[in-house]
Specification:
The chain is mostly helical. The C terminus is likely disordered.
């Protein structure tokens, strides 16, 4: 008789353990669902600029938590990064920009972010007049400037400065030289 109660106790204990695991699993799923509700987000392919911006905002919020993210937050973060990357590759495909002049590409980047010239000046530390001349196409973007702009917009600097396969090299007008007739050093200072 004493053996029967032990077996029942063991079975009840195992059953309790299984119930705890089920509850923990539900809590994890519930926390993921609650997370989606809290951020007002539906995990789906990004189709519009406003969805993209919302996903970016949520991702930045999760990113700021660093080592304090829950499993649900980590899962959501990883999903959003993938969805954002897919949207950016589809929307901001650089293949279509290969023959675009660097100043037009810069204009596009600013328009996509609804960024004003003065905001770009403040964010990059570039001179206001210089930015104006670059945006109008009156001055080419130097390597140093392309590096700063590339870091700010998270694009390759090569997309912002003329490359050998683009018009301009045949004429000897290199991106690190000014169009003016005044002689200048081959490499501008880093502050430009």
């Amino acid at each position: 008789m004493s053996e029967q109660p032990k077996r029942v106790q063991n079975t009840q204990s195992e059953f309790s353990d299984v119930l705890k695991q089920i509850q923990e699993s539900r809590q994890k799923n519930d926390s993921y669902i609650e997370l989606l509700k809290r951020y007002e987000i539906s995990p789906k392919i990004i189709e519009t600029q406003s969805e993209y911006e919302h996903f970016l905002t949520v991702t930045e919020s999760l990113l700021s938590k660093r080592n304090e993210r829950t499993e649900a937050e980590i899962a959501l973060f990883m999903l959003l990064v993938k969805l954002i990357r897919d949207y950016e590759e589809k929307t901001y495909s650089f293949q279509e920009w290969i023959n675009t002049k660097p100043h037009e590409f810069l204009q596009h980047l600013m328009e996509a972010r609804e960024l004003k010239q003065i905001e770009l000046v403040k964010a990059t530390g570039l001179n206001k007049g210089l930015v104006s001349a670059m945006l109008s196409g009156k001055r080419e973007i130097s390597k140093a400037q392309a590096k700063k702009l590339g870091e700010y917009f998270n694009v390759s600097p090569e997309n912002l400065a003329k490359q050998p396969h683009q018009p301009g090299f045949a004429t000897g007008k290199f991106p690190w030289r000014s169009h003016s007739t005044v002689s200048r050093p081959a490499q501008p200072s880093e502050s430009e």
